[in-house]
Write a structure and sequence with these properties.
This protein is an alpha/beta fold. Helices cover 37% and strands 23% of the residues. It has helices at 12-24, 38-45, 57-62, 78-87, 102-115, 130-141, 165-184, 271-274, 276-292, 300-319, and strands at 3-8, 28-34, 52-53, 68-71, 91-95, 120-123, 147-155, 188-194, 210-216, 221-227, 235-242, 246-248, 257-259, 262-264, 323-324. The protein binds nicotinamide-adenine-dinucleotide (NAD) and (2R,3S,4s,5R,6S)-2,3,4,5,6-pentahydroxycyclohexanone.
Amino acid sequence: MSLDVGVIGVGMIGQDHIRRLTHVLSGARVVAVTDSDLDRARTVADDLPGATVHGSGQELIDDPAVAAVLVTSWGPTHEEYVLAAIAAGKQVFVEKPLATTREACERIIDAEVAAGRRLVQVGFMRRYDPQYRAMKAVVTSGEIGVPLVVHAAHRNASVPDHYTADMVINDTVVHDVDTTRWLLDDEIVAVTVLKPRVSGRAAPGFQDPLVVLLETASGVLVDVEASVNVAYGYDIRGEILGEQGTVELSESAGAVVKTAGRVAGRVPVDWRERFERAFDVEFQEWVNAVRVGGPTGPSSWDGYAATVVCDAGAASLASGSREAVVLRDKPDLYKDA
Ligand code: NAD
Ligand code: ISE
């Protein structure tokens, strides 16, 4: 039997996830959609035979035909829908961020813990990327020894006009926060944001790039260069220095061509191209897992930790100082995850 999914928010990524659930993956189908822009919801539903268009997210969650919920609306709306799905006892996949404030994430954790089982998965898709998984396997094997320092770069070709330096932390670097925690199996305890020379490509008044320095509980230092107006493409990099060696994130799954004394390869245009395979694997594993029990991917705890670290990053951007990250005690529900 397929997993019947209802989708809240059918903008750019919502439509992309509907496409993969409908045409790429197996075991799921989209049976309902909604969006605050109802015309958009109707247009999307036109390509989904039999799908219902609901007037609100709550109505969609209450629909008995909807077995699981996908939340791909704007970040500040996530809390309401995730809490409603938990209250209805339905599995919910929420794109990042889990929620935009520490308090909102804590309310979600409290509700899920009270429900007594995992119902929430957060869309940190890099954990499903083959190149990141290969890197993680090397760290876990012990081959490079104890990790000491991580270098990362997160570069976007461009961002919309409304993008701010705060969003670079909350919307962009949030992925590096999650990959750091996941790769090192370590919590982040402090954040310092540094402001290099500003790119002439950035909008007036926009501090771009940023260097975000993360410190982990075991003492690993992680520098993340976040640049969101690089123009040449979407470029994600990583290297971990360990006591016995290093591991680098492979840059491309595409072909590298050497001819006429030159080397050439493709630079992805954006996150959709770079992480297409990761999104596919992420959703297939989510569908498979919730059909037989519960999700096994990034949890509400992971979403909460990422939001708290990003809050500290935003505070450091404003203060210019190192900001400590203080997490609440981890509930037992998340201890084995
Ligand atoms: P978008 O603006 O293209 O789409 C958002 C949609 O949500 C719009 O159609 C909007 O009308 C709808 N919406 C807004 N408020 C709503 C509400 N209260 N109820 C129902 N619908 C509502 O944005 P997007 O780029 O698709 O991003 C959506 C989410 O996905 C964000 O949380 C974003 O951070 C996340 N995202 C994740 C990645 C990733 O790499 N994992 C990439 C892009 C976006
Ligand atoms: C976007 O929302 C994403 O999540 C992308 O992965 C990230 O690279 C981009 O900077 C964000 O705006």
